[in-house]
Design brief:
heterodimer, A: 155 residues, mainly alpha, 2 domains, elongated, B: 193 residues, Rna Polymerase Sigma Factor, Chain: A, Arc Repressor Mutant, subunit A, 10 helices, 66% helix, binds zinc ion
Chain lengths: 155, 193
C-alpha cells in the first residue's frame, strides 16, 4: 500500500491502470491530486491518455465493422430475421460501400459453390453396397454371439 | 431396389431406415457418401486415408441410424460423426507418431486406390488453379472456422444445424462463418475481382 504523497515515479507506474480505471477509489484520488499539482506528470498523462483513446476508438470501430460484416454475412446466407432483413435492405439501398461488401460476400459464395459442385460432380464412390453388407455381417455375428451365450447358459 | 425408394425425400428414407428398411438405408448412404467424402477432403484428410474414413463414418451412420430420434437432425448428426471421427483419427495418429517413425518401413507405404480428379475428363473444364487456391485457403483457416464454412458452403447446412453439429450456439456460428469469409476474401483476392 502506498503511503503519504505519491512521487512522480509512483505516478509513472500508476498512469496506465489509472487510465484503464483499474485503481481503487483511494488510489485514484491520490493520483488525481498529484496530477493536479504536477505539470510534468499531467503532460505525460495527457499524451498517454490520447494514445489510449485513439487505440480504444480504433478497436471500437473495428468491432463495429465486424458486427456489420457478420450481419451482412448472415444476411447473404438468409439467416437473419425478417425484421433484420428489412433493415439491412434499407441500409443497402442507401450505401454503396455496404452494397459492395454484400456483393463481395456473394461472389465468394458463388466461387466456392461453383468449385465444390464441379469438383465432386463426377466422382463415383459406390460404397453403399459394401456398407450394407458389412452391417448385415455385423448383425449376423451379433446374433451368433447371443445364441452361443444362450447355448452356454443351457448347459 | 424398390423403385419408390429413389423418389423418397431424405426425411422419409430416414423414417424407413429407422424401422429397419435396408433399401432405404442403402439409398441414404448412396446419397450422402459424396458429402462425407468432400467434407473430409476439405478438412484436409490424407489422400490415403480419406476412403477408409468415409467408409467408417458411413458405417457408423448405418449402424446407429435407429438411435437418431428426429430425422430433421440428421445433417447435424452426420456432421457430428464426421468431425468426431476425423479429429479422433488425427489424435490417435499424433499419439502414435513415435511408433510410426520406428515402423516406417517400405511395407507401410502401401498405395491406396482413390478417385483421381486429374483423370476425370469433365474436370478439365474446371480451373485447376482455382480449385487448389480454394483448398489451400480453407486449409489455412483455424479448425472451428474451417468446419463451419465447409458445412455451410459445401453441404448447405443451416446455422442451427451447424451449431448442433459443433456443439456451439448460433451466435458463435455466425461469427465463425463471418471470420472465415473475411480470411477467404483476403486469400482469394486475385480470383474475386
Ligand atoms: Zn509528478
Amino acid at each position: 500500500m502506498l503511503k503519504g504523497n505519491l512521487t512522480c515515479e509512483n505516478i509513472s507506474r500508476l498512469i496506465l491502470p489509472y487510465i484503464d480505471d483499474k485503481l481503487t477509489e483511494n488510489q485514484r484520488n491520490r493520483v488525481a491530486i498529484h496530477l493536479r499539482n504536477c505539470p510534468f506528470c499531467m503532460e505525460k498523462y495527457r499524451i498517454i491518455k490520447s494514445l489510449f483513446d485513439k487505440i480504444k476508438q480504433k478497436n471500437i470501430q473495428r468491432a463495429k465493422k465486424f458486427q456489420q460484416y457478420k450481419l451482412l454475412s448472415a444476411y447473404c446466407d438468409n439467416e437473419v430475421s425478417e425484421n433484420t432483413k428489412d433493415n439491412i435492405e434499407a441500409s443497402l439501398a442507401l450505401s454503396c460501400e455496404l452494397t459492395q461488401k454484400a456483393i463481395k460476400i456473394n461472389n465468394l459464395k458463388k466461387l466456392m459453390n461453383y468449385v465444390f459442385e464441379s469438383q465432386f460432380a463426377n466422382i463415383e464412390l459406390n460404397m453403399e453396397k459394401d456398407i450394407i453388407n458389412r452391417l448385415k455381417n455385423d448383425n449376423i455375428f451379433k446374433k451368433i454371439k447371443t445364441k452361443i451365450k444362450k447355448f452356454k447358459l443351457h448347459f | 431396389m424398390k423403385y419408390k425408394i429413389k423418389n423418397n425425400s431424405l426425411d422419409e428414407l430416414i423414417e424407413l431406415a429407422r424401422s429397419g428398411d435396408m433399401d432405404a438405408l442403402e439409398e441414404i448412404i448412396k446419397r450422402q457418401q459424396k458429402n462425407v467424402y468432400a467434407t473430409l477432403y476439405y478438412l484436409n484428410a490424407k489422400p490415403d486415408e480419406i476412403m477408409d474414413l468415409t467408409q467408417e463414418i458411413l458405417f457408423k451412420v448405418a449402424k446407429n441410424i435407429k438411435k437418431l430420434k428426429n430425422p430433421r437432425t440428421f445433417k447435424s448428426w452426420l456432421n457430428q460423426i464426421i468431425i468426431n471421427q476425423f479429429y479422433d483419427t488425427l489424435r490417435k495418429k499424433q499419439k502414435s507418431v513415435k511408433k510410426v517413425c520406428l515402423e516406417n518401413t517400405e511395407e507401410s507405404k502401401t498405395n491406396f486406390e482413390i478417385p483421381d480428379f486429374a483423370s476425370n475428363p469433365y474436370q478439365k473444364a474446371v480451373d485447376k488453379e482455382l480449385e487448389a487456391a480454394i483448398k489451400n485457403s480453407i486449409h489455412k483457416l483455424p479448425d472451428p472456422f474451417k468446419a463451419a464454412i465447409i458445412m455451410r458452403e459445401l453441404q448447405g447446412l443451416s446455422y442451427e444445424e451447424i451449431a448442433n453439429a459443433t456443439n456451439s450456439n448460433i451466435g458463435t456460428v455466425k461469427s465463425r462463418i463471418a471470420r472465415a469469409r473475411l480470411k477467404l476474401q483476403e486469400y482469394l483476392k486475385p480470383y474475386l475481382s
